[in-house]
Amino acid sequence: MKTIQTRVTMLATAFIFMVLTAAWAQPIKVSGIVKDASDGSPLIGASVYVEGTVRGTVTNSRGGYSMEAKMGDVLVFSFIGYVSEKKVVKSATLNAELRADEQILQECVVVGFGKTKSPRMSATKSLMRSASFSYDAANTEAYKSIEENGFKQVKKNPLSTFSMDVDAASYSNMRRYLNQGKLPPADAIRTEELVNYFTYHYPKPTGSDPVKISTEVGSCPWESSHRLVRIGLKAKEIPSENLPASNLVFLIDVSGSMFGPTRLDLVVSSLKLLVDNLREKDRVAIVTYSGNAGLALPSTQGNDKQKIKEALEKLTAGGSTAGGEGIQLAYKIARQNLITNGNNRIILCTDGDFNVGVSSEKGLEELVGKERKSGVFLTVLAYGMGNYKDNLVQTLAEKGNGNHAYIDNLQEANRVLVNEFGATMHTVAKDVKLQIEFNPEWVQAYRLIGYESRLLEDEDFNNDAKDAGEMGAGHTVTALYEVVPVGVKSNYAGKIDDLKYQSTKEPVVNKKSSNELLTVKLRYKTPDGEVSKKMEWPLIDWKGERVSSDFRFASAVAMFGQLLRDSEYKGSASYDQVIGLAKQGLDNDEKGYRREFIRLVEAAKGLAK
To answer: Helix count (H) and strand count (E) of the chain?
Structure first.
């Protein structure tokens, strides 16, 4: 009898355990609020994800989140500039309070402008501890070779002409390398993209032009006898509710190289963030490609979010990469659903590892070049590591009337696709070109910092058939010039022998503008226009040293890029100097990106040793 009772008790216990286990394993809707521990204010755009996966979300304007998870899952709460926190799911409500990472901000470093004090602990160590993935030993990543811009003499080259670039992919790619505990290769660093990762306080356009020019000049931090010129552009802002209707085609690489949590899984999570912000008047189609291309979802209204998300969740990775065929199909679908005066755009998500059909850099350039007059713009979101083909992805973005971002985590996806939705997706000015004319009375030599792949011939400035960069709603773009003033002895300025067959007399200077250091000339077209409009803005150097905090921060980022590239023009630059200068530019840092930059510089400093 006891034996029977024992067996019954054991069976009952086992049954109860199975029921409880099944209940524990069922997904539940977990929600909560993420706040700043110091003052209780909500953290907007904080990442919340299940540890060991890329399943997650970001907090809304009230700091709230809602997502599916299982009892016992560990949720990771993180936000730039704060210490991450992990919590076990034990109920349907799970709140978090994050503490600001004060480690880097303990000091008040002013190198070249004041005093310095050593940090209490190297940020390199904390970054190493937080790195969540390992580097692929079989690295086949590819980058275009960059021949850095040198100094040009004004007497011989008074004009500097280039296409304005709004890409910032190089920054997040650099961050990915440093978070892995490695310094990035020199050709992965495009200094202008590091500078343009950040937003600066430039005056907004007030007239009919969609772009406003502003300028600033001060001492060059890494070469004190030189001057540094900052040229800023600000595009007009459009409230999200007033943005034109979008006709989007998600073009997704589902080849074998896209398998994994930092590739296709992250693509799906990224695009879900974008889907959450679509309106009824927006439309989305999904095209996929591996061995061949196919239509995974016909053009669907933006408010049918569940249908779009279900189509994304069904995607799996495998096979070869027929990227060219996918691009052709995506343009065809975009043209079929073209919205007049709307935002017609392909969003390509890929690692750039094309290997079937049109796959060469030249072939892809010709392919997207033919389509750029169709009225369809191109945004390239790059993913993956170890086999990332930056050279091909950059070509697609440059030649396809588009922009380029590298998505290394869900927080970066939120920045690009949610926080900067208008700037990323809605073009307000296309074929934006700059031409700077230097005054030889004040400038003997100059060099443009970065933009090596965007240089144009001087005559291209007035040639409306020449393609150039695009600017999105609310976007800011920055260009920096290092200038050697007249009278300053410099090995960089060089010397030209007198010419035998041409006059070498000093050029005649217009006395009415002799106090001008330079003049900025800008050309742009409206998104649907084919004729450009010209703007001009002179700059006078009053020789003062009172510059804005934005100027100091942009200078620090440019100096960091030159250190990572081991530039021959880095002068007296050091990582400590970068950190000190960056700390003078923390006023405009609502989302913590500038504080994150300081931690990355600390990491690079440690790795460089």
So the answer is: 14, 23
